[in-house]
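Below is how a single chain appears once it has passed through the pipeline. First comes the sequence as given, then the structure the pipeline wrote out for it. We keep one example in the README because the format questions we get most often are answered faster by looking than by reading.
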Amino acid sequence: MKARLPIAALLTVLGTVGFLASCASDSGSSGDTNNSSGGGGGDTAAAKAFFVSKVYPSIEPSCSKCHATGEKGAPVFLASGGDASYNALEGATGLIADPSSSPLVQHGLHSGPALTSDQGDLVTQWLKMEVTARKLTGDTGRPANLRAAFKAFGACMDYKEWKQLGLDKIPLTNTENEGQCVSCHIKGQASLWLSPNPDETFIKFTQFPYIQRLVVGSVNPSGAFDSLQNSRRMMDKGTEAQQVNANSHPRFALSPTVMTNITQFVSDTLSNMNAGRCQGVTQPDAGK
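Resulting structure:
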């Protein structure tokens, strides 16, 4: 026969259990950020340690050339060292997500090398740890399609940087036989809007279809929208091999400085867009 506790003793035990549960609950809500993040409840400290010790040393040699510098318009999510890179990844939008949707795993072959099998396995293992720890949903925070990406890029364009780089002078570029570019594109002809008013020109560049003169979309191997990249349309248009002065578009040449500055502007905007750093951009009425 099993022994039974007297009622008084049982109440004492239950009271002790309740007290311990209360203490555990208080301890779990004490603001300890080492073990949970983003409304989760798992061990993000372990996930971070795995990234710093395993993932970063694996991907740094092949990925940092572009993703720590922004070269070729690449989003910046790596830094000098594992800890700084982890912080950068946390600050980016949609990268720490389920491996089935994270661009870190799904991007594949791009302007840089795709992840090797070993790298992919490490990144996938780490992301699964993050998903469990943070109780993440399937929302990556990335534009769902090309039109949404154009809208996000336009909203992230900074008029102050546009002017500092001298891009407000693009409408005044001279062609060989037809005067300045603005003379033919003043009302958006051929999907390029170049107004004598720099504010109007910038606003039009943030909108479809004119935004395509700055960026175009790329697709993944399955044919779905993948990401935006520099279109180079204004840089290449005036010197295309098939262009002759007799056809509908005269030759022109942007200066090396302007071409460099267009590339920088697109790269900076893509980096800010992908990292969710668009809140402080200026618009024409705030950038005069």
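Residues 44-134 form one domain.

See the next section for the split statistics.
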